Amino acid sequence: MKVYADNAATTKISKTALDAMMPCYTEIYGNPSSLHQVGQEAFHAVRDAREMMAKCLNCDTDELYFTSGGSESDNWAIKGAAHLMAKKGKKHIISSKFEHHAVLHTLNALEKEGFEITLLDVYENGLVKVEDVKNAIREDTALVTVMYANNEIGTVQPIREIGAVCREKGVLFHTDAVQAVGHIPVDVKADNIDMMSLSGHKFHGPKGIGALYCKKGIRLPNLIEGGAQERNRRAGTENVPAIVGMAAALKEACDNMEENTKKLVAMREQLINGILKIDASRINGDRDHRLPGNVSACFEGVEGESLLLYLDLAGISASSGSACTSGSLDPSHVLLAIGLPHEVAHGSLRLSICEENTPEQMDYIIEQLPPIINRLRDMSPLWERIQNERK
Amino acid sequence: MEYSEKVMEHFTHPHNVGKIDDADGVGEVGNAKCGDIMKMYLKIDNGIITDVKFNTYGCASAIATSSIATDMIKGQPVSEALKLTNKAVVEALDGLPAVKIHCSVLAEQAIKAAVRDYYDKNGIEYDEAEFHFNEEHHH
């Protein structure tokens, strides 16, 4: 059996999105900036896509800018807001310890420029406390940036409440909503969001396309200079097929969200219950405030990369936050941020499912996991030590 | 990052997995914090390594290097086993990704630690230089 359970990494493009895109390669291939009819058709395609997406997010069309993806949107919003507010003498930024690297590394770069960064604790349950945001805001705070949902452990942050605190204090608020948009209800107005990053390929749209929502009145300096595209704010010829595909995917995801959520939550709980039957296992992150499709687990005495590769041989695609898969010597900063010891964090496994998965596939994963874990534990000196300590 | 076929072969079907209860030398290197521990068991008869087993906690390359390194020293004189370098282990595996080279170092160190344990247990004198690691494990 083949099971793709790495949807937080990327998703398969939906048929709806692909069908919407194809004519943009074969017929509507013009440049939206061209005044002739072929160009105007492309212009209209981009305009319609923007309208469609604005409706899904509850914003105005002129508050939505197409970018190359989540990382660009994060870079643009954070660097832009920082530089905008620095002119008013505000050089303090608040974020959380377990943001995506697109945010954390951007903040590192700003720190080198002289900005002061406060990274909030996310506690054992993987949730930022609204009180902590409130207490961290200072006179010179330029920006608060907290992710909507964590990419690794799937915890959903109290964004609306954090946004309300920022509004009250008059501080700009950005959220990296790459894992949330298309998966849980996101409403930029109700959620008090000033800027929001999103990425097409996380909700069955194409790769290499994303968007930044930027509330009217916030004059972010440009990140990409050049032509007059995106109302002079983001240069570069529009990736028309990708924009059209992303919009179609988002609409489909939002239209089916209620139904998908029910299905996903049932499968997620099925997986979690099966995993917790395995000796010395744990689920990471809050059990209630989490994405419908995210399961993050740790198995003691087992190293994540080995687990991941044995699962792959069994036809199951998953991911891990072990050092060996992060390309560094430390396990994922997310798992360390929620207080896991290194040796436990090394044994992490992330299964991220989508509505195309089936309960039978969940059964298959639950059936395949124990023998693989036992095999690895049988040859693990660490597991031997854990067993001896238990005695 | 990509693993060679050889690495995948040794990872999926590792040789010499297990323990030797009456081992003549046992060596353990690495630590849980870094995500890899290698433990080698040697059976030595007349200066020849007649049997070798390993237990490893770690990634695919840690398991693969343990497997191939144990193959390489089985049946060899102890003096030859001490000459095994991490470089030879990497070559035997048709290469390792740069970030995984430390796993091969671990394999070399585990063998040396097991031999040293054998020497210590049997009161055999040795030259410290023989246990000089060719490359520091960078953990």
Keyword list:
heterodimer, A: 391 residues, alpha/beta, seven-stranded mixed beta sheet, three-stranded antiparallel beta sheet, 15 helices, B: 139 residues, alpha+beta, Sufe protein. Chain: A, 5 helices, 3 strands, 19% strand
Task: Tell me what you see in this structure.
The complex is a heterodimer of chains A (391) and B (139). Chain A has 391 residues and is α/β, with parallel strands linked by helices. Helix content of chain A is 44%, strand content 13%. Chain A contains 15 helices and 12 strands. Chain A has a 7-stranded mixed sheet, sandwiched between helices. In chain A, helix 10 packs across helix 14. Chain A starts with a strand and ends with a helix. The mean pLDDT of chain A is 96. By secondary structure, chain B is of the alpha+beta class. Chain B is 39% helix and 19% strand. Chain B has a 3-stranded antiparallel sheet with strand order 1-2-3. The two termini of chain B are 20 Å apart. Chain B has a single domain, classed as Sufe protein. Chain: A (Alpha-Beta Complex). Chain B has 5 helices and 3 strands; from the N terminus they run H-E-E-E-H-H-H-H. At the A-B interface, helix 10 and helix 15 of A face strand 2, strand 3 and helix 2 of B.
Structure summarized in a few sentences:
With 391 residues, chain A is of the alpha/beta class. Chain A is 44% helix and 13% strand.
Order of helices and strands of chain B: HEEEHHHH
The major β-sheet of chain B equals: 3 strands, antiparallel
Radius of gyration of chain B: 14 Å
Write the CATH fold name of chain B. Answer: Sufe protein. Chain: A
Straight-line N-to-C gap of chain B: 20 Å
